[in-house]
Amino acid sequence: MFMRALFTSARLAAFATLFAFLVIVFGAFVRLSNAGLSCPDWPTCYGKATWPGHEQEIARANEAFPDRPFETHKAWREQVHRMLAGTLGMLVLALALVAVWRRRALVLMLLAAAVAAAIGVFLYVKGAHAASATLSGIAILLPLVAAARLDRAPAWRVAVVAFAVVVFQAMLGMWTVTLLLKPVVVMGHLLGGLLTFSLLAYVALALAHPRAPDAAQRRLKAMVVVALVLLSLQIALGGWTSANYAALACGMDFPRCAGSWWPSPDFREGFVLWRGIGVNYEGGVLDGAARAAIHIAHRIGALVVFGHVLATAVLAWRRGLRANATAVALLLCTQVALGIANVKLLLPLPLATAHNAGAALLLFSLIALLVRVQGTAKD
């Protein structure tokens, strides 16, 4: 029975969720330590499955990539992150197969998607980029079709969709390197990771079968959904801030920015999403006014999110969901405190990484609240 549904699907979903959180946090550490281009090729690192270790290998790496000298302390971070992401992909595939194992046609569809994705990577390495993109597109489409045809509770369909997201996330990881840290791709990669985490969290929580909500609690659903949308937009703003190296655009000033309440920000220039191909965005290309605009937008977004999410937590408390409300409120306040501390302390790596982890945990707490107020359908 498919290895006893892989030692119970709920445990597999919970482990995959925890592993996705690890990948997100480690990915933030890689990005914030400026190691995002430390392996100039993909999916190998200077042509190796791991990274160069011996002097001869390092010499050959530097000869092959003269514009990107090998740095051990950065390269291992990037390649380990890729390995962790690949492991997560296998976990998500296993969970998706558990979801469809009763339907042989859907199992074959998911296995075909996995094979297409693997061949796509091989073709990309060989330089057949068009064929690789076609197979990757098929690998994304097949799980979506399988999810639409699956006749089970919503959580199972979400598990299958998560596999399609993971395949697309792998493509974003490739583009992050090949397009030289293009901000819109870096932001998309961050959002893709958090979307994968969110889908897995929803599956894990839904499979736990919490007790059914009462009528008053169900009426909270719309407010929780809005909170999730606002938080997602704020996370996107945070990703845009990080990708454009705008986290310190206001210096150490808070709540003011660079000694002023409104330091002539250039929002038009700051939010140009596409600037062409071939530009190396490492270190950022925007001027101070554009970066200040991005930073200020992130602060304004934080105020909006704080107000709505706190109101949601208060209402949840009043309607008997005290554990969920407490978790949301505490994580919300912690996240705001981390954001302020990052400005005042000039973005120390541990705090900056913790700020990314805090965003994921706050997202998780709201998803848990959503599952709690809508209940789950048993399968």
What does this entry look like structurally?
- This protein is mostly helical and 379 residues long.
- It has two domains: 1-208, no CATH class; 212-379, no CATH class.
- The chain has 14 helices and no strands.
- Helix 4 (72-100) packs antiparallel against helix 5 (104-125) and helix 4 (72-100) runs antiparallel to helix 7.
- The radius of gyration is 22 Å and the shape is flat.
- The mean pLDDT is 92.
What's the quick description here?
This protein has 379 residues and is mainly α. It has 14 helices and no strands.
Counting DSSP E segments of at least 2 residues, the number of strands comes to 0
Number of domains: 2
Strand percentage lies at under 5%
Give the termini distance in whole angstroms.
Answer: 16 Å
Global morphology? flat
Q: State the share of residues found in helices, binned by percent.
A: over 70%
How big is the Rg?
Answer: 22 Å
Fold blueprint:
Layout: H1 2-7, H2 9-32, H3 55-64, H4 72-100, H5 104-125, H6 129-149, H7 154-178, H8 183-207, H9 215-218, H10 221-243, H11 267-270, H12 288-318, H13 322-344, H14 349-374
Helix pairs in contact: 2-4, 2-8, 2-14, 4-5, 4-7, 5-6, 6-7, 7-8, 8-10, 8-14, 10-12, 10-14, 12-13, 13-14
